[in-house]
């Protein structure tokens, strides 16, 4: 047995399997986290409002980045909570603190996303009035 790590050869089947694992992860997040449904509702609303207001390509990019930041932070928070629950099934004050900090990261990204949406949408709405 060699002690050096041999890079894995590219395989389409393994890439497809990786995508399946990722989709399963997103599905698990939606099944286990109620806040993920809030993010999904907000995502749909933002996309619909952006389409109705005909935002430009640059504005779409900022909206997509904001949406992505919220979803990524929620996914990482969910994964972190699962790991904490395995590592410390019983209550531990440091685990609570770490979960709170991870949840705070989601809150910060959501606040940032709302600010971005307001910066983009308010001028479009004002023009309609």
From TrEMBL:
CC per GO annotation: plasma membrane
InterPro entries reported in the protein's UniProt record: DAGK, DAGK_sf, UDPK
Keyword Magnesium among UniProt keywords: yes
Family: Belongs to the bacterial diacylglycerol kinase family.
Topological relation to the membrane, as annotated: Multi-pass membrane protein
Pfam families, per the entry: DAGK_prokar
Compartments, record wording: Cell membrane
Residue numbers binding ATP: 33, 81, 99-100
CDD domains for this protein: UDPK_IM_like
Transmembrane segments: 36-55, 62-83, 103-128
Enzyme Commission number(s) of this protein: 2.7.1.107
Entry binding sites for a divalent metal cation: 33, 81
Active-site residues annotated for this sequence: 74 (proton acceptor)
Record keyword Transmembrane helix present: yes
Official protein name in the record: Diacylglycerol kinase (ATP)
Residues binding substrate: 74
GO molecular function: ATP binding; ATP-dependent diacylglycerol kinase activity; metal ion binding
Keywords: ATP-binding, Cell membrane, Kinase, Lipid biosynthesis, Lipid metabolism, Magnesium, Membrane, Metal-binding, Nucleotide-binding, Phospholipid biosynthesis, Phospholipid metabolism, Transferase, Transmembrane, Transmembrane helix
Binding note for cofactor: Mn(2+), Zn(2+), Cd(2+) and Co(2+) support activity to lesser extents.
GO terms for biological process, alphabetical: phospholipid biosynthetic process
Cofactor section: Mg(2+)
